[in-house]
Amino acid sequence: MCSSDLPGDVWDIPLVNNFHIEKSSHPCQYPVGLVERLILALSNKGDIVVDPFIGSGTTAVASLLHKRKCIGIEKESKYIKTAQERLAKVFSGNYQYKSYLNPILFPNSQLNTKSIIQNDKL
Fold first, then answer.
1. DSSP letters along 32-64, please?
2. Is the pLDDT of residue 118 over 80?
3. What is the value of pTM for the model shown?
4. Are strands 104-108 and 48-51 parallel, antiparallel or unpaired?
5. Following CA atoms 102, 58, 95, 6 in sequence, which dihedral angle do they give, to the nearest 10 degrees?
């Protein structure tokens, strides 16, 4: 594990609202960018990640995107279906999400440009 995989002091994680690219039918969904940081910091490629309340499958998505295996448990069939649909997109290479590794853009009103700040520099 390298130091860039370790979470910093400030995490700028967007909420998953109705306009978020990852939005599913789950009412309490959290973004892949949140769990992605934990997966990278606390596991290695090939490890098995267990999520006893998998909901819409965010933990499984982040695990598979970063070459981990995942075991998830969920009692609500509608959320199992949502998780399966999300995982099918991951397996096909068509899953879109906002990684915490992407730079954050801040508007610069004085210059009418955008400043880019890397997440590890926050």
1. HHHHHHHHHHH--TT-EEEETT-TTTHHHHHHH
2. no
3. 0.68
4. unpaired
5. 30
- Radius of gyration in angstroms for the set of CA atoms belonging to the chain, rounded to a whole number: 16
CA distance 76 to 111: 51
User: Can you tell me the distance from the alpha carbon of 84 to that of 80, in angstroms, rounded to the nearest whole number?
Assistant: 6
Q: Provide the token pair at 63.
A: 């695990």
- The model's pLDDT over 91-110, given as tens digits with 9 standing for 90+, comes to 988 877 777 666 555 555 55
Do 114 and 106 touch, CB atoms closer than 8 A?
yes
CB atoms within 10 A of CB 27: 8
Reported as a single tens digit per residue, the pLDDT across 3-51 is: 555 656 776 666 665 655 565 666 566 778 788 888 988 999 999 999 9
> What are the structure tokens assigned to 52, written together?
């006893």
